[in-house]
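Put briefly, the fold is written as integer tokens. One such record reads:
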Amino acid sequence: MVFQVKMFNYFFGSDSRSLSYLKFLNDNTKNLSVVTTAPIETGRGKKVKANIIETFCVENSIRFKYFNQTDIYEDMSNALCVSFKNIFSQEFLSKNNNIYNVHLSLLPKFKGPSPVETQILNNENNIGYSIFKIDEKVDSGPLIFSNKIQHKNNLYASDVYQYIFNDFINSFNDIIENLNSELNKINDNESFTNKFNKTDFCINKDDVKTAQKKIRAFDVVGPAYIIHNDKNIKIHKYTNSNLGLEIKLNDGYIFPSEITPQGRNRMKVEDYIRGIK
């Protein structure tokens, strides 16, 4: 295949973190094709449920297909990949045109599945993102774009995702201009992240500072939670002042401001307190 058109006419994504990029690309691309993952069984009832990307495509009459490692996309010039569940095989990459991944760190630091969350947990100051051509190694392909984000301290992960998306929009013309070109790769200070699981979200055994970092880091992929009075309380946000619910940790108290009590919907702490009085 010899397509070298400077555009993204394919999009790969499979979760909520992909959605804003898909919406933007759909508004700025003619004849966009989307590749996502097939529905899976979820919940206690094991109901088959489509992901948020498929749902958006159906609702907006966007052409989409389910990913298969054996597929060849003959009409693909360049593809944008954001938060896509599957890993591409070397054979798939060799038979298809360029796929560019948006990775939410300044590569080569924080490679892997959880760059935003790990940077918050590590008190990282230099937050940014990189776009690279995917190859067979983990987050190691040639860079076409990288940018550091100016930000405030104590950001939640959802804030970081939004900051980066906003910069992506503002830098889109530069990103398109860099398609099919390559920046110098930097291999110094390479580091990797791991996938978090539910036990990582628990703050029962943490000190206050660690718990606060977890609440901010996991507000998208989690949230953080605590077992309080034998009940699971998910904590979405916290404050430095007591709003009526104080939770004791190893070295002090944490004051939630938004929670999901066990068996109930997400709510502000003030509403929760009024409901139990």
Summary: The two ends are 68 Å apart (CA to CA). The chain has eight helices and 14 strands.
